Amino acid sequence: MFEHNAAVEAAIESELRLLDPTVRRSADLVAALLHPGFHEFGASGRIWDRASTVASLAAGMEDGGRITTSRMKGVQLAPDLVHLTFDTDNNGRRAHRSSLWRLSGNEWLLYFHQGTPYDPAEDDVSVEEA
């Protein structure tokens, strides 16, 4: 069941901030959004930790293009945990994405992320809202 509550909205706001090219180029701004235990299974197949993610983004290892999102939905799994799912398009590279955001103090921080590449022509999965 997808929800629209304060926790989900805060996680969505933080996720969108993290996708902003200006934020992505700033090690400090990216680090402020990542939980100390952050890890990711990237769409590239690479496994990332917090330090490698911050360093990679700050070094401009991406092409820096605007990332567009679609079908973003969220559910609060626990008082301190939100799960988001969405799709991204980064200059034609598309991925299904899943993020876990944890409340740490008063901040929602990205704890886990996974991206899986997909071809929209072959994407026949229908996600229904509960």
From TrEMBL:
Q: Which Pfam families match?
A: DUF4440
Q: Which InterPro entries match?
A: DUF4440, NTF2-like_dom_sf
Organism domain of life = Bacteria
Residue ranges of every copy of the DUF4440 domain listed in the record: 14-110
Designated name of the protein: Nuclear transport factor 2 family protein
The species this protein was found in: Streptomyces sp. NBC_01393
Organismal lineage: Bacteria, Bacillati, Actinomycetota, Actinomycetes, Kitasatosporales
